[in-house]
Automatic annotation (TrEMBL):
Residues 1-23 form the signal peptide. Keywords: Signal. Coiled coil: none annotated. It comes from the Bacteria. This is Sel1 repeat-containing protein. It comes from Pseudomonas pohangensis. InterPro entries: Sel1-like, Sel1_AlgK, TPR-like_helical_dom_sf. SUPFAM superfamilies: HCP-like.
């Protein structure tokens, strides 16, 4: 093994050693990908939810999504808890505002189904389209399903709102690019 391979291997091993892992119900160690550890024994559930709520209040969008999902499902690891759609809505909204695709997807489904909110196909379509732009494949299919049920007037309203959202986003990106571009006038020309 050459020196570069040894260095890369050592770096990879050090990186893997730093990952948090969970070995519950599995003989293989699996990296934990979420912010919260809600997948705990029922007697530890209250403490786990409290810790997750603190992360969510501190602005962690993944924790906000996980809490939303926890309240939306009404069951976690076989332990029943009260399904709370108002809490699910609140936490999905918080994560959605930060561009969390899965939170936008679930929020869109809530509006489509009228779960905890009045049924609203326009709002559902907008959220599902945003989720699909942010990387949710499931949201693309769901948005198509909602679209098929919308009237032409609803489609026009949703398209107008989406156009404004994306126009504002592009303008913000352009402003960021202009403010972060390096000053190349003081750089010597390439030879």
């Amino acid at each position: 093994m050459n020196r570069t391979s040894c260095t890369l291997l050592t770096g990879c091993l050090l990186f893997l050693a730093a990952l948090p892992v969970s070995a519950e119900e599995n003989s293989l160690l699996v990296p934990v990908t979420g912010s919260c550890l809600l997948n705990v024994a029922p007697e530890q559930q209250s403490a786990a939810v409290s810790a997750c709520q603190q992360l969510a209040r501190d602005g962690d969008s993944e924790a906000q999504f996980e809490l939303g999902n926890y309240y939306y499902q009404g069951e976690f690891k076989g332990a029943q808890h009260t399904r709370d759609l108002s809490q699910a809505l609140y936490w999905f909204e918080q994560a959605s505002l930060k561009g969390h695709a899965q939170a936008q997807y679930f929020l869109g489904l809530m509006f489509y189904r009228g779960e905890g909110v009045p049924e609203n196909d326009i709002q559902a379509f907008i959220l599902l389209k945003m989720a699909s732009v942010n990387g949710s494949d499931d949201a693309m299919d769901a948005a198509d399903q909602v679209y098929e049920q919308m009237s032409q007037g609803q489609v026009e309203i949703a398209s107008q709102v989406l156009g404004e959202i994306f126009r504002d986003y592009l303008m913000e990106l352009q402003g960021l690019q202009q403010s972060t571009q390096p000053d190349l006038s003081s750089q010597p020309p390439f030879n």
